[in-house]
Design a protein that fits this description.
There is one protein chain. This protein is globular. It is of the alpha/beta class and 254 residues long. The longest helix has 28 residues. Helix content is 41%, strand content 15%.
Length: 254
């Protein structure tokens, strides 16, 4: 099925397996991809996209800095003439293996601030910076990345759960506020996803993570590409302010 993304300009924030899979998926669907990422991983992802024959642009970006996000948007406007899609993927504590627990009374407040700034303020800053580029082209699409942790919280990760939970009203508020400019805003909530080899995960971990799933497997970033392309394309043109949970059927909303 064609997603109609040919010659669309898609900005993907954030590194790692998610950013790589999203960039490749969008490029395979015909979009020109911008990697708004750090110098640690952005050039490698950009090279991966180019190595399979697609166009990609790396713009070094700190999503927690208003100055940096505005500079990124200005570069995209100057180099490519605008943008049509934004994927707010950059986050801390995303994917597996899971980081050590941070119990409430032991969690450094610096880590709380760091996680909320990256996971919540970051999407706000990037969206604010990119919205004028959408407006100039008659509209656009934002896809935020939240998590089932917003509903199924785990002790010791309150910073992550709160940051991802707050993305739900952020997504809905953005959808309402930007609707007049033909900008749609939705979100993906991926379940347990490994950015490495699923076969390398301990069997007891896999059993625990998949216990409540209908589809008994730990996900990979590639399992999310179809959902991303649906939300980024006109196939979802009558959707905004929604979150799609992609977790093997563990968390069911309704």
């Amino acid at each position: 099925m064609a997603f109609g993304l040919e010659d669309k300009i898609a900005i993907v924030t954030g590194p790692g397996g998610f950013g790589r899979a999203y960039a490749l998926g969008l490029a395979d669907a015909g979009a020109r991809v911008v990697l708004a990422d750090t110098a640690d991983s952005g050039p490698d992802i950009c090279d991966a996209v180019r190595s399979v024959g697609h166009e990609a642009l790396f713009v070094e970006t700190d999503v927690t800095s208003e100055e940096s996000t505005l500079a990124m948007a200005a570069t995209v406007a100057a180099e490519l003439g605008g943008a049509d899609i934004l994927v707010n993927n950059a986050a801390l504590f995303q994917g597996m293996p899971l980081p050590p627990l941070d119990p409430i009374e032991e969690m450094p407040i610096e880590r709380w601030n760091q996680v909320l700034t990256m996971n919540l303020t970051g999407p706000l800053l990037v969206t604010r910076a990119v919205a004028p580029l959408f407006r100039a082209r008659g509209g656009g699409v934002v896809v935020n990345q939240t998590s089932p942790a917003a509903w199924a919280n785990s002790p010791g990760r309150i910073h992550y759960a709160v940051s991802k939970g707050a993305l739900l009203p952020l997504t809905r508020s953005m959808a309402r506020e930007l609707a007049g400019d033909n900008i749609r805003v939705n979100a993906i909530a991926p379940g347990p996803v490994t950015t490495g080899d699923p076969a390398s995960l301990p069997a007891e971990m896999v059993a625990r993570l998949t216990e409540r799933m209908c589809v008994k497997k730990v996900g990979t970033p590639e399992d999310l590409i179809g959902t991303l392309l649906f939300l980024a394309s006109d196939l979802s043109s009558w959707m905004s302010g929604q979150v799609l949970v992609v977790d093997g059927g563990a968390v069911m909303l309704g």
